[in-house]
Amino acid sequence: DRRDWSVKTKSGITFMTRNSSMVTVQAGTKAIVPCTVRNLCDGTVSWIKRDEYQLLTVGLATYAGDDRFLSVHPFNSDDWSLQIKFVQLRDAGLYECQVTSHPPSSIFIHLKVVEARAEIIGPGEKYAKVGSSVELNCILKSSPAAPEFVFWYFNDRMVNYDRDRGLNITSDLPAKKSTLTILKATREHSGNYSCVASNSYPASTVLHILNG
After folding, report:
1. Residue ranges of the domains in the chain?
2. What's 18's DSSP letter?
3. 5 pLDDT higher than 60
4. For residue range 135-161, what is the model confidence (pLDDT) as tens digits?
5. Each residue of 67-119: pLDDT tens digit?
6. Angle subtended at Cα 145 by Cα 142 and Cα 149, rounded to the nearest 5 degrees
7. Structural fold of domain 7-114
8. Which of the two ends of the chain, N or C, has the fewest CB atoms closer than 10 A to its terminal CB?
9. Does 7-114 match 117-210 in CATH topology?
10. How distant is the alpha carbon of residue 16 from its chain centre?
11. CATH (residue range 117-210)
């Protein structure tokens, strides 16, 4: 229940966003740092990056010399979120949502920025025998959201739909994993395999198919 952790100030202003909460976003995406304020009256909401003591926005005006920062306030709403476009690792830190009441009132939100990466489990070079079944398992690490897709490439060719090459690909997007299976390996299956997700840095491995 929000009433258990909402912050009501002496001036009657109530912050409906949990103080000292954490927002985790992926580098390169858009971050929304929330701040919901009730009973604002004549107060003004400002955003400050505390670890740099940098004033970002006052009301709907952006004061930072970086147009990636924007105060978002839908008309007649209590929402005064801070939007950061194309988030970078250096944007991580402590953000203050401050209301110019008497005395000033604030809550603080931690922004964590992660770089999602794909990983093909096992060594960078793999070996298998002709005629064997081979599985390449790809997982996504540090990804706060499921990908929209995972594509597999053999050398420079996308092979998600190449069943005639003896390949089978299954992906569990909510679980952030995908598996490429070679049903019966031949020497022609030797080469570079890459796992490319929509929201992560790709991963590659080299597969060598050897005569038994």
Report:
1. 7-114, 117-210
2. P
3. no
4. 999 999 988 889 999 999 999 899 998
5. 999 999 999 899 999 999 999 999 999 999 999 877 789 999 999 999 999 99
6. 105
7. Immunoglobulin-like (2.60.40)
8. N
9. yes
10. 24
11. 2.60.40.10
